[in-house]
Amino acid sequence: MDSEKHVISLLVDNRTGVLSRVVGLFGRRGFNIDSLTVSATDHPEVSRITILVHGDAAILRQIILQTDRLEETREVFALESADSLFRELLLLKVEADASNRGELREIGSIYKAKIIDLSPGSMVFELTGEPEKIDAFLKMMEGYKVLEMCRTGITALERGGLHPHTSPI
Amino acid sequence: MTLTGAQIFTRVLMEQGVDTLFGYPGGSVLNLYDELYKCQNKIRHVLTAHEQGACHAADGYARATGRTGVVLATSGPGATNLVTGIATAYMDSVPLVAFTGNVGTSYIGKDSFQEVFITGITMPITKHNFIVRHVEELADTMRAAFRIAQTGRKGPVLVDIPKDVTAARTEYTPAAPEPIPSRDRFTHADLEAAAALINGAKKPILYCGGGVAASGAGPLVKELMAKAGIPATYTMMAAGVLDYGDELNLGMLGMHGSFTTNKAVDEADLILAVGTRFSDRVAMNAKTFAHNARKVQIDIDASEINKNVTVDCSVVGDVSSALKELLPLIQPAQHPEWIEQIHRWQKVDYKPVDHDDRLMPHQVIGACCEMAGPEAVYVTDVGQHQMWAAQYVKHVKNRGFISSGGLGTMGFGYGAAIGAQMALGPSARVIMMTGDASFHMNLNEACTAVSNQLPIITIIFNNQVLGMVRQWQTAFYENRYSSTDPHRHTNFVKLAEGFGLKGYHCENLAQFKDAFAQALTSKGPVWIECMIDRDEKVLPMIPSGGSLEDMMMS
User: Fold this and answer.
1) Domains of chain A by range and CATH?
2) Matching CATH topology for B188-347 and B361-531?
């Protein structure tokens, strides 16, 4: 079975406990979460949970239908990469001194990463972009000593106006 | 009008038409019990021996009637004792609302006495659960709980109420119960696709599950069977929805279903699955199950479509409303060759052998059905006796076979029988079938049956071992009977007397018939212990994960 990455967007009631219901469901059904972000929406009573998962089409369908059963789920749908905007934020702290500061800055500028902190022995980059771009930047940084790193996980929206979503069965 | 939380609690129960609830009092629900005391002429509270029994009773009440069962327990251990009962109801999609007290809101999260995070514990075994933190939310939360329990695929909902919320006051405005929203999602095109497959089939089989019983769709299923000439089989959860006299009713399928039903499913060119989920006790091997057949699935829960077995066509909606719209699209048909083939399989199917000198489960059940009549309601525990009951009880009516299917909860029976008898009234005939091992788990509820003078007849199939586990040890573990022979010396007749009820001990069929005839005249509960051989097996049997060719007939 081909295991592909899928991004699921979940609009839920903004109530205490809703995140544990969603995460509990994934744990119980054996669905793997690669990343998960929770964010506010334009509506104060609604939160958006964006989940990156991997699995075949049947697993994706089960994830959506099972999540849809939760009482607090308002809408759940998969985001197709061609029609969607995916963004992730990276903070990366690398060891840097006078000898390599210049080359690090050069790599950063190619990826349009900002340097947001500098100390005599370290440097912190901030980079926003599609996950693949962040992966590529991190690959370039493999030759340097990474001290600490934090990725937010995917946040996503569809391109264009509002879309109707149909059930996946 | 300003009322306390506890007063609102009883008012909303009355709004929802609750006439009976099962429970056990304790510290954090004292205010609620004080209000129940004041309105006991309107709401009957049934005190059980243990909260688990109360939860199974609320479940049995719901299964016997279709109405929502209600259970009330205190915080901490009271709440955790409900867990098995809630999980049992969840697995079998039984509408249930469980209320738990909790410590006061200022004590929550501080490991206070009898505090437990019951909403966290029950999250995976409820459709939804709530903690009510403000008295202003209590009435609407309770109303939502009743609505959710009955909407779409039914199931349990838990409402946790901290003690201070039951004492606080707020404005109360009565409200009529909300109408239950429809969850039908099917389109006419879905029905046409299903009808085309049914109309084109040469060897169709209809396979009914618990959804047929829950939806009260038995008559519609029978109409479809007659019109399209489709023979039908059913899961244990649908026992009683088909007529036993109907030659198109082939009986139960699955692990302990007949050779005929499993063979027919294996050979069929169309499976019409109605209100069922292809569980692993039916589609034991999801890859080989009905491998020659196109499959149509009708179910109210969209997540059940393609979950266990991939289908060719699906109709998502209430079984009754889907069948009503499907029936006009079905062409009248007969399948005489197919039926004849099925009859040939029936001739070589497993038949239990009668004995005069010792008690045989099928003979006990046969005599019991004959003497109790077609209106009896059967409740079981879990194990060999449960499968014998599912195989040999032939007088079942809709909602007349109450058993823990999905969770397989030993100890379910007595509580459920109490709930069923309470729901149906003292003139109903409720028969509980159990094994000595299942019965030992929750026989404490005999005191509840005595207190309430419930004429439940309990038949204990006593083989002195943990029969079903032992059967597996015989079949798959070379007779290594690890912890299945407990060497108990329980005297069920004396134990019955100790509880204040009548017990009988039987070793042959004549003794059983005598005891049962006397039991039928009793006003209170009765136990009849039936001694059976410890090597008696449930047959036929397909091992878990197996296929038809793995079926054991001896």
Assistant:
1) 4-79 (3.30.70.260), 86-155 (3.30.70.1150)
2) yes
Q: What is the pLDDT of residues B52-95, one digit of tens each?
A: 999 999 999 999 999 999 999 999 999 999 999 999 999 999 99
Owner of token pair 């251990």? B77
- Interchain CB contact of A19 with B (< 8 Å): no
Nearest to B448 by CA among B484, B399, B413: B413
Nearest to B543 by CA among B554, B532, B551, B535: B551
**What ipTM was estimated for this complex?**
0.90
Report the amino acid identity of residue B176: A
For the domain made up of B188-347, the CATH class stated in words is alpha beta
The rounded distance, in Å, linking the Cα atoms of B141 and B120 is 17
Output the pLDDT for position B367: 97
pLDDT digit string, tens, across residues B454-475:
999 999 999 999 999 999 999 9
Taking the model in full, what pTM does it have?
0.96
The CATH number of domain B2-171, selected from 3.40.50.1220, 3.30.565.10, 3.40.50.970, 3.40.50.410: 3.40.50.970
* Gap from B77 CA to chain A (nearest CA, Å): 22
Non-local (6+) Cβ contacts of B495 within 8 A are B443, B503
Distance from the Cα of A21 to chain B's closest Cα (Å) equals: 7
Res. A1 pLDDT band, cuts 50 70 90: very low
Which of B148, B303, B314 lies at the smallest CB-CB distance from A62?
B303
